[in-house]
Amino acid sequence: MCYALYLSTDSQKDLTKHNSDLVRFESISNDDENRFTMLLKNPAKWYVGSKSGCSCTFRHLVATELGLGEPEEWYREDQDEIDATKELFRLIEQLIFCEHQVDCINIWEGSDSEGVVKMDVQLSLLSEVSFRFFENHHFVFYK
Description:
Layout: E1 3-9, E2 23-28, E3 44-50, E4 60-61, H1 79-97, E5 102-108, E6 117-122, E7 133-134, E8 137-142
Parallel strand pairs: 4-7, 6-8
Antiparallel strand pairs: 1-3, 1-5, 2-3, 5-8
């Protein structure tokens, strides 16, 4: 089992042009829809993988008690997880500031779609290093 990260946007931009060693985008067609991608709000849907192939090599927390925040010495995170999350955050920020809508769902594969919690994320209040994903959350980004 591992994490899966699905992103949607109203931008027609080909996100595969942003593929790197740390972040990989794969377009999701209507035929590839699943119970999680159906929760996304926008027409262009993407699976977001990391260097591991799945979405595991991003910053993740199981629960939201610690909230959004910069890496801490007492909670070990690999540098690749931090860098991949920053890279993805910058792209989301770029889309939002170009007046596009963006949302994403971070789930633990095998989870129930009814347990997904919506979370509004105001990008202007965050830095790229303080953002992280929460398991089984639907993030809706705005300025």
